Amino acid sequence: MSRIDIGEVRHFLTILKQANAEARVWLLQLKQTVERYVQDDSLSGKAVEASKSYFEASYPPLIETILQAFDTSEALLAQYIQAFHSQVDPSPNARIDAVLLGQAMEKVKSIRRKQEALQQSLSGSTAGIYEGRAQTLRLDFIEAVEQEKILEKYLQFEQSHTHFFEPLIELVQAAKRAVDVLHQQVHFNEETGTYTVAKTFAPAMKSLQDSLQKARGIDPKLDEQLEDYEILAVVYKDNTGKDAVMWVLEKDGVRVQNMKLQKYIEQTGRYQDAEKYTIITLADLDKKSPKRGKRVPTI
């Protein structure tokens, strides 16, 4: 079992947001610089035109990918903190590790032994004398059990988040490398009037795109399997009045229960290309009821 200090995680999110905010300002300025360069009619020649075409085609999507990486890393970390508070401990500075878990379990066992020993030593004439001691043990036991419950909840939470931080950190580092490459290795050649890019530029961007897909949980093989289905993003209001989305898989107009793909689309639906799914309302879904009334196939 690993150690977690949720206060440290929250601090990391704060630092990450600050760094991303500074980088966003520079990236938007860079985007404007590229736009001015592309639109500058005072620069001409085949080399210039080729350079302009490259930057016009490459930079907007590259900058957008970096910005998406910023948004994704912040959102994932915020979701982790929220999940910890809702599933484990709402305390803002909760700290849990293997030592605490062992101490809590041993404390419960120790109190149980003391309670059993006290119970065996009691007789009708001595029960009143030891009632205060028994009450203290009961209160200690309740407190220890509550602590043990929190730690047990964390064990379950940790199991469901075993591989959370590895792709997140990888994404944060890949985004930083991409920004560094843009900042340090894209140069303007005054003699030719063109921008040049170092050879490490393309690998850095490829690494960022791969890290972004990994952090989002995108699996090319599962994406390919989704192509056999119609994906519906059913928009509705949740119990708080906020917009929410329910993902539905259909084949030949009939809803299909594919547990693996259903879990996958619920996790990655927000990141899928918009052309891969159709947005409908609950009312629209109800209109499909004649077909949906058929037996739902399970895969």
Automatic annotation (TrEMBL):
Matching Pfam families: LXG
Family indicated by similarity: In the N-terminal section; belongs to the LXG family.
InterPro entries, sorted: LXG_dom
This protein's name: Bacillus transposase protein
Domain of life: Bacteria
Domain LXG, first and last residues per copy: 1-226
